[in-house]
Write a structure and sequence with these properties.
It is a single chain. The chain folds into two domains: 238 residues, Aldehyde Dehydrogenase, Chain A, domain 1; 144 residues, 3-Layer(aba) Sandwich (Aldehyde Dehydrogenase, Chain A, domain 2). The chain is 43% helix and 19% strand. It has 14 helices and 16 strands. The longest helix has 20 residues. It is globular and about 75 Å long.
């Protein structure tokens, strides 16, 4: 009961703040965002001390190198978080924008206007940058945020939230525009996702188990950020140098994130020439390769892939490789195994590229570009609260516009229903 009372108290505070934010002008929201960015850099010492504690505890728990990288903050990353907040500040405010406007034959004027969702609950795991990103995006879109980070980053998240709430206060807004659940007990998550009297939306950002738990137990509407089982297909006609570069970037640039490459599909006509080049590059980068029978015959000494590999999000320097006989076979494999987040084709054949772009049903589909580009900042949306694999309300990077809904404003002169 103590946990439930604590969660509901913070949810109630966030709901009260959402009522204030609903009519807060852009200028005041932007002042708060600018102050957040400024204080994150100015108070970096306290934040980095807290992060050092989390990193030390993570090493003691045996977290992988990829997980520790997701957890780590340094001066450069704090600058990046501050820059992301400044980018959000510069975005157009979607609140109050008129999407459509029309007049009915009886003279009634109707407008469809963007409004905040209300209180957005964000549940996430080891990446403390999500704390600032989520708070900033919610504030810009006029929403209060109730945050619950993972146990690995609890000290970092609490330090970040303290800074963000100070900035809100200095900008004349309630500190409760950003609330955080300060405990890591799983029961707090269950209470949070059932607080439908206070929360209007839940966004889970994390592993498959977290997302499944939220989906199965929530009474609050959920915007899913599912796993990122991402594919790249190398077509028969392609530039081998580009293929090596794109595979390397998609797999190695930051392997512990959702848009990193997990499965590589290669057309049989391209495999003999290009696969050894890719394998040589990836092995030099420390990537473990797991391949189908034909892949193993072309790259001796690698591990034979199992059926489970095609459905595994490694989040590590591991890559599954399959040789296929056609573009259609690649599309079929993606349809059977993808989580629907990001896929790419590498080809010089425009007709093949267009077929792939239209046939693959994922949130972001690329032609001759890395899947690592699936990101709100890269797309020009500012920071993102997540990458939605859902098809209803929001899909792909979730930025400020996706954190609004709409209502109809109707202006009449005495019209009645006949």
């Amino acid at each position: 009961m103590a946990i439930k009372a604590m969660v509901l108290e913070r949810a109630r505070s966030a709901k009260e703040a959402a009522g204030v934010l609903r009519t807060t002008p852009r200028e005041q929201k932007d002042r708060a965002l600018e102050r957040m960015a400024e204080l994150l850099v100015r108070k970096d010492a306290a934040i980095l001390r807290a992060n050092a504690i989390d990193l030390e505890l993570g090493e003691e728990k045996g977290l992988s190198a990829a997980m520790l990288d997701r957890l780590k903050l340094d001066r450069e990353r704090l600058e990046g978080i501050a820059d992301a907040l400044r980018e959000i500040t510069a975005l157009e405010d979607p609140v109050g924008r008129v999407d459509r406007q029309w007049t009915r034959p009886n003279g009634m004027e109707i407008s469809r206007v963007r409004i905040p969702i209300g209180v957005v609950g964000v549940i996430y795991e080891s990446r403390p940058n999500v704390t600032a990103d989520a708070a900033g995006l919610c504030l810009k879109s006029g929403n209060a945020a109730l945050l619950r980070g993972g146990s690995e980053a609890i000290n970092s998240n609490l330090a970040l939230v303290e800074v963000l709430r100070t900035a809100l206060s200095q900008a004349g807004l309630p500190e409760s525009c950003v609330e955080m659940i300060p405990i890591t007990d799983r029961e707090a998550v269950l209470e949070m996702i059932r607080a439908d009297g206070y929360l209007d939306l839940i966004v889970p950002r994390g592993g498959e188990e977290l997302v499944r738990t939220v989906r199965e137990n929530a009474t609050v509407p959920v915007l899913s950020h599912d796993k990122g089982l991402t594919h790249m297909y190398i077509d028969a006609e392609h530039d081998p140098d580009m293929a090596v570069k794109l595979v390397h970037n998609a797999k190695c640039q930051r392997p512990g994130v959702c848009n990193a490459l997990e499965t590589l599909l290669v057309h049989a006509a391209a495999a003999k020439k290009t696969l050894p080049l890719i394998a040589e590059d990836l092995k030099a980068a420390g990537v473990e390769l797991r391949g189908c029978v034909r892949t193993c015959s072309l790259i001796p000494g690698i591990t034979r892939a199992t059926d489970e590999d095609w459905d595994t999000e490694y989040l590590d320097l591991i890559l599954a490789i399959r040789v296929v006989d056609s573009l259609d076979e690649a599309v079929e494999h993606i349809a059977a195994h993808s989580s629907g987040l990001s896929e790419a084709i590498v080809t010089t054949n425009e007709q093949a590229a267009e077929r792939f772009l239209n046939a693959v049903d994922s949130a972001a589909v690329y032609w001759n570009a890395s899947t690592r580009l699936t990101d709100g900042g890269v797309f020009g949306l500012g920071a993102e609260i997540g990458v939605s694999t859902a098809k209803i309300h929001a899909r792909g990077p979730v930025g400020v516009e996706e954190l609004t809904t709409y209502k109809y404003l109707v202006r009449g002169t005495g019209q009645c229903r006949e």
